């Protein structure tokens, strides 16, 4: 590395340390990682993080890190034979009060505390510090010497893997041949990014529509205005006979017409272009109380259970239009018994304030936040009164933020941005604004739930599929992992940071191929080889896939096109388990009891089918990059720090 780059690192440390120190306790592990690398101060690690031990090794001369031992699951999932919907043993009411202030829910111990505005201390990042830190990282990724440095390191990582492959390919293969029982087919794979409303393929949906028509044509399924319509009447109004339907006329598959047209893609959720059919078949809250949608999901779940080794993390929507959404979603989940051991649920919140505002459904942005988060606080404080939500939340592992990222926003996010209560214009807030307020509320909620001994939630937004590079910076500060990450291609500094911090990325090259980026140009292979923590996911099997096993289709196409080795594929599968919301117990079972340890020690080859040579290579390479950085820091600050 050049002296110039070393100097840059030094300057970064000086210019950013104030905020890093101040806020480190409330940021995500990735941000803390950055903090670890760039600052040399005593601090305490709050999370157990896969690579902390590695960092510890390099920081130990200067930094005192306390590593918390990996705790058992706060809330293990029900074992076989237990009732997953049991309402026994629900915790008592805490009698706390709630109030939303500057877009963030505050908790008060009693009415008196509320009156005196003395909120219960549940840490979260404040807007001003977040905005300043954001601008620091933005300055960093635009800095010339830093860009050159990262670009060169990334090139080096790519070439180094190429060399590793040439030297060790056969040795890796030999190792895998010796593993008894385990092969690519029976390693656990998690579909880390999939939307529930599109989790079945087009043929499946078609067959389901035809079956319901054959068996229940006279059932009332829709209320339009004051008129109740039977399934037969719905199809009569659409002038079609379900018997004649084909996947072509169903028209839910994305194709050439959707490229760079997210609007057209969104309309593909309407079978035959009819929103009535979406309402009947793909919604949880409709005249038939989401029965058909639940059936479809359960059929998908049954296939996963049969395949045994595949799991999925489908997203269900909470829009923030009304405060009753959680109650009805939870009731749907319990009533139709949607839980499956092979599925963990994520909640997606679409960024569509502008639509609700134009329909005059909400007065300000704060109302959306309140509708999304307040019911969760209420169910945490008084689960007895919100039993359904309380039970449903056991199976929810995180939040997602979704919508078309290529939509431009005129507003520049800063600490001067209007507070959510004051955000009353018709314009949609920018991506970063959504991310910050979701993250801050999740943070407060998690801290409250941790104190109650309840499960907490990850933040896993869609990010870097299209649009501004700023999105990836906001996610780096807040997210546990992201979906897509394509735009990391455009920023060497961010890509290198995502590598160093091992921020997991759920990639969906088939989805990208229909929407934003041709398959052959997809950076997945490049990212994987450099050592970024990537997994494969389907996004929307209904729109993109052809076969019954959409996730396998995804792996198969990637393997064919990029000539991925078995070890590559199993490494991706292992990454998918690591980054999923599965419980600690399950992860231990699926990828090995020591999976939290770094390097080959953390790998159980009999479960993952990933060669130890590969694990050692990844570990040594990451250590090498870290020691490179640390040497640079040492040169500049080692002596002064020692003094
Ligand atoms: Zn998606």
TrEMBL record:
InterPro entries: A/AMP_deam_AS, AMPD, Metal_Hydrolase
Enzyme class: hydrolase
Top-rank lineage group of the source organism: Eukaryota
Family annotation (PROSITE patterns): A_DEAMINASE (PS00485)
Gene Ontology CC entries for this record: cytosol
A UniProt-annotated Pfam family: AMP_deaminase
Pathway(s) where this gene product acts: Purine metabolism; IMP biosynthesis via salvage pathway; IMP from AMP: step 1/1
Keyword Metal-binding belongs to the record: yes
GO biological process, one term: energy homeostasis
Any one GO molecular-function label of the UniProt entry: AMP deaminase activity
Record-listed E.C. numbers: 3.5.4.6
Catalytic activity: AMP + H2O + H(+) = IMP + NH4(+)
Transmembrane regions listed in the UniProt entry: none
Function according to Swiss-Prot or TrEMBL: AMP deaminase plays a critical role in energy metabolism. Catalyzes the deamination of AMP to IMP and plays an important role in the purine nucleotide cycle.
Family according to the record: Belongs to the metallo-dependent hydrolases superfamily. Adenosine and AMP deaminases family.
Protein name (record): AMP deaminase
Species whose genome carries this gene: Oreochromis niloticus
């Amino acid at each position: 590395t050049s002296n110039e780059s070393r100097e840059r690192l030094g300057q970064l440390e000086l210019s950013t340390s104030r905020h890093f120190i101040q806020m480190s306790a409330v940021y995500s592990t990735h941000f803390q990682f950055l903090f670890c690398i760039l600052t040399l101060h005593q601090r305490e690690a709050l999370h157990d993080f896969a690579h902390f031990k590695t960092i510890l090794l390099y920081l130990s001369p200067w930094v005192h890190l306390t590593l918390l031992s990996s705790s058992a699951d706060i809330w293990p999932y029900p074992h076989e034979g237990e009732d997953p919907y049991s309402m026994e043993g629900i915790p008592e009411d805490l009698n706390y009060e709630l109030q939303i202030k500057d877009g963030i829910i505050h908790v008060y111990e009693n009415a008196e505390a509320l009156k005196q505005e003395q909120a219960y201390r549940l840490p979260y990042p404040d807007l001003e510090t977040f905005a300043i830190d954001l601008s620091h990282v933005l300055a960093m990724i635009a800095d010339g010497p830093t860009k050159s440095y990262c670009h060169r390191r990334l090139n080096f990582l790519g070439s180094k893997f190429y060399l590793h492959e040439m030297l060790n390919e056969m040795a890796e293969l030999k190792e895998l041949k010796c593993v008894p029982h385990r092969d690519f087919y029976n390693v656990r794979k998690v579909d880390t990014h999939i939307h529930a409303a599109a989790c079945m393929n087009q043929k499946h949906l078609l067959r389901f529509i035809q079956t319901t028509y054959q068996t229940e044509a006279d059932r009332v399924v829709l209320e339009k205005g004051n008129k109740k319509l039977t399934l037969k009447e719905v199809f009569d109004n659409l002038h079609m006979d379900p018997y004649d339907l084909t996947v072509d006329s169903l028209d839910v598959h994305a194709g050439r017409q959707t490229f760079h047209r997210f609007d057209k893609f969104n309309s593909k959720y309407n079978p035959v272009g009819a929103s009535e059919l979406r309402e009947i078949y793909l919604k949880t809250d409709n005249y038939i109380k989401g029965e058909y949608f639940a059936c479809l999901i359960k059929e998908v779940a049954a296939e996963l259970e049969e395949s045994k080794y595949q799991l999925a993390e489908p997203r269900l929507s909470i829009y923030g239009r009304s405060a009753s959404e959680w109650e009805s979603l939870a009731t749907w989940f319990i009533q139709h018994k949607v839980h499956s051991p092979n599925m963990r649920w994520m909640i997606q919140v679409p960024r569509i304030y502008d639509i609700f505002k134009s329909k005059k459904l909400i007065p300000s942005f704060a109302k959306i936040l309140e509708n999304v988060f307040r019911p969760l606080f209420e169910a945490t404080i008084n689960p007895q009164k919100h039993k359904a939500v309380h039970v449903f939340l056991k199976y929810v592992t995180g939040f997602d933020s979704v919508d078309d990222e290529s939509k431009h926003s005129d507003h520049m996010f800063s600490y001067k941005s209007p507070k959510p209560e004051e955000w009353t214009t018709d314009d949609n807030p920018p991506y970063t604004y959504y991310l910050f307020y979701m993250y801050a509320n999740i943070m407060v909620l998690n801290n409250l739930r941790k104190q109650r001994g309840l499960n907490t939630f990850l933040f896993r937004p869609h990010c870097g599929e299209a649009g501004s590079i700023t999105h990836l910076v906001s996610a780096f500060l807040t997210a546990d992992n992201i979906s897509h990450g394509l735009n990391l291609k455009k920023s060497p500094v961010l890509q290198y940071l995502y590598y160093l911090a091992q921020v997991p990325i759920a990639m969906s090259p088939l989805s990208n191929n229909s929407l934003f980026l041709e398959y052959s140009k997809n950076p997945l292979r490049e990212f994987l080889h450099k050592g970024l923590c990537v997994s494969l996911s389907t996004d929307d099997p209904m729109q993109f896939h052809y076969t019954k096993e959409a996730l396998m289709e995804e792996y198969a196409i990637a393997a064919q096109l990029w000539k991925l080795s078995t070890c590559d594929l199993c490494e991706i599968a292992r990454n998918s388990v690591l980054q999923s919301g599965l419980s600690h117990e399950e992860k231990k079972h699926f990828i090995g009891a020591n999976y939290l340890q770094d390097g080959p020690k953390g790998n159980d080859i009999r479960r993952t089918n990933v060669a130890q040579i590969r694990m050692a290579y990844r570990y040594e390479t990451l250590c090498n990059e870290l020691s490179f950085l640390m040497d640079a820091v040492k040169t500049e600050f080692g002596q002064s720090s020692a003094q």
